[in-house]
Amino acid sequence: MELRAKERVPVLTGVLTVVSLALVFAAVGRVLPTGALPRSEPLVELIPHLNAVLSTAAIGTITAGWRWIRRDEVARHRAAMLTSFVLFAAFLVLYLYRVSLEGPSEFPGPETVYLYLYLPLLAVHVLLAIVCVPLVYYALLLAATHTPTELRRTAHKRVGRVAASLWLVSFTLGIVVYAMLYVVF
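Structure (tokenized):
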């Protein structure tokens, strides 16, 4: 099984990316059937705050993973990056649940801030999040299907560096968007 996956990392990356992004766009577009979802108002209200905590934790684990690999601490790097992915997955499940039920959050602040600050920040955040999906999947699938020695001969280092950088910026902008929606305004 591992050998077959090792040979198909780009295809698996593509499939996972399409499925993930289709779920996100379907949730945001409110085309997912939500009748079967249990509705918990306290949870729905808590999700933006939980996701801000998950994003902050992911920034910490990505940064730690980056430092550990620079020190050649492969096991710690792997644990940090897997933890980052789990945090992201938890974020995504909560986000999809909330946006499926409620739709995207409306900006409560002034129109000028909305047009000239919030929308550009949100656009960059969303664009980076979309770009990160295949990069993160590719780096993780390479790591999951190759030994550390084999991994050095793949694009893992290069793709992982780009993925981690963009992921950090995306998570950080997500926290700024959260602050504008739920703290500042």
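The helical segments are 2-7, 9-28, 41-70, 74-102, 111-145, 148-151, 156-184. The chain has one domain: 2-30+38-184.
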